[in-house]
């Protein structure tokens, strides 16, 4: 039976925007409001220095949030990403030890260690059936204990050549932002063009149905966690290039774990998994970076800043939820003659479930009063 609801519904469907498009529109609105607020105080949000600052903020959180998107799509999450980034920065800086010839060794080792962390997280979640919240929080505390015991302060030395990863710009765009966008593009291709990406959506939507369909759900979950931790390792290397050394507490104490989850949710990905994408996450990261830049320029009190961010995130998620209910909970209503309410007089339903006009059904169900 057709679900057409007449001209009004057709117009609504025609101009209905995807969640990702709404997030990007929200980012543009946030940027415009920020320009006005900063301009009212005599500043310029779109000056080159402020643009560089804004884009620099997106790089580190962007890497982590992209990885976080993958695990959340699988109906999981990772609270160890900040600790993994700190570990990667120390491993990379220690192995580089100021020698440009050891840059590749430091990068490969840092990413490999990060991937191992994700592998352990995935195996604990899938093999031991430990809740992702507990498993990744426990892993984060293990890493924190190790770093606090062995490395009380900065350690290692990042060569000047690798520091360019954190400070090189192409015009007003930092090199790190370009790399982050390339990683985001790769994640989009993974999710939309590969079997593994489709499996992540399937596992997040209904893990049992995915298993019965032949998808190796455990392997998919492990892969998502490995990629998430590897992305956190990239963020750690970026921070090491900016600090010119490996650091621990300054990284894992910055709250990247919760900020990345906030960016993913703000970007329209459901915490229950199965729906969302990296495109919305990048927009969510840009929104948070814009808010932080505006708050800094306006010298907003840090406590009030966190309150505003929390209110914005809650309001955004509430709007997404309301919109989802509007799209899925709509029920078509019909008149006694079988014509949908709101349709023009000339419209009539046709479909495989309609009875032939030449042989109307018999029985009490053919009474218009009963149908009404």
Give the CATH topology: ABC transporter involved in vitamin B12 uptake, BtuC
Q: Which percent range fits the helix content?
A: 55-70%
Query: How many helices in DSSP terms?
Result: 16
Mean pLDDT, nearest integer?
A: 85
Assign an overall shape.
globular
**Helices and strands, in N-to-C order?**
HHHHHHHEEHHHHHHHHH
Strand order of the largest sheet: 1-2
The biggest sheet amounts to: 2 strands, antiparallel
What does this structure look like?
- This protein has 372 residues and is mainly alpha-helical.
- The protein has a single domain (7-328), classed as ABC transporter involved in vitamin B12 uptake, BtuC (Orthogonal Bundle).
- 68% of the residues lie in helices and 1% in strands.
- The chain contains 16 helices and 2 strands.
- The chain has helices at 7-14, 19-40, 48-73, 81-96, 103-127, 132-150, 160-167, 175-193, 195-205, 207-212, 217-243, 249-252, 256-266, 278-297, 302-328, 368-371, and strands spanning 169-170, 173-174.
- Strands 1-2 form a two-stranded antiparallel sheet.
- Strand 1 and strand 2 form a beta hairpin.
- Helix 3 (48-73) packs antiparallel against helix 14.
- The longest helix has 27 residues, at 217-243.
- The radius of gyration is 25 Å and the shape is globular.
- It starts with 6 loop residues before the first helix and ends with a helix.
- Mean pLDDT is 85; it is low at 1-5, 8-16 and 343-372.
């Amino acid at each position: 039976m057709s679900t057409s609801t007449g001209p009004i519904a057709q117009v609504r469907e025609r101009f209905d925007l995807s969640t990702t498009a709404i997030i990007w529109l929200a980012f543009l609105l946030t940027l415009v409001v920020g320009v006005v607020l900063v301009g009212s105080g005599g500043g310029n949000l779109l000056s080159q220095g402020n643009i560089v600052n804004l884009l620099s903020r997106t790089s580190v959180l962007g890497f982590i949030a992209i990885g976080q998107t993958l695990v959340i799509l699988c109906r999981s999450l990772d609270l160890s990403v900040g600790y993994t980034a700190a570990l990667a920065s120390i491993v990379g800086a220690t192995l580089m030890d100021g020698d440009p010839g050891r840059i590749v060794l430091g990068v490969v080792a840092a990413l490999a260690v990060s991937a191992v962390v994700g592998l352990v997280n995935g195996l604990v979640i899938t093999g031991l059936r430990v809740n992702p919240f507990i498993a990744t929080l426990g892993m984060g505390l293990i890493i924190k204990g190790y770093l606090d015991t062995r490395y009380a302060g900065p350690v290692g030395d990042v060569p000047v050549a690798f520091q360019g990863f954190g400070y090189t710009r192409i015009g007003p765009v930092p090199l790190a932002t370009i790399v982050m966008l390339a990683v985001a593009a790769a994640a989009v291709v993974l999710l939309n063009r590969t079997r593994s990406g489709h499996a992540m959506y399937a596992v997040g939507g209904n893990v049992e149905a995915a298993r019965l369909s032949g998808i190796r759900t455990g392997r998919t979950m492990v892969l998502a966690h490995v990629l998430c931790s590897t992305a956190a390792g990239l963020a750690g290397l970026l921070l090491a290039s900016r600090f010119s050394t490996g650091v621990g507490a300054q990284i894992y104490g910055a709250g990247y774990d919760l900020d990345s989850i906030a960016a993913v949710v703000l970007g329209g990905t459901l915490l229950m998994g199965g729906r969302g994408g990296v495109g919305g996450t990048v927009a969510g990261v840009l929104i948070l970076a814009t808010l932080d830049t505006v708050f800094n320029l306006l010298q907003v009190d840090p406590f009030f800043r966190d309150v505003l961010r929390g209110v914005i995130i809650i309001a955004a998620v509430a709007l997404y939820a309301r919109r989802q209910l509007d799209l899925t909970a709509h029920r078509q209503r019909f008149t006694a003659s079988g014509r949908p309410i709101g349709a023009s007089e000339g419209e009539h339903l046709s479909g495989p479930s309609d009875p032939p006009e030449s042989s109307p059904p018999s029985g009490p169900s053919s009474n218009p009063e009963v149908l009404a």
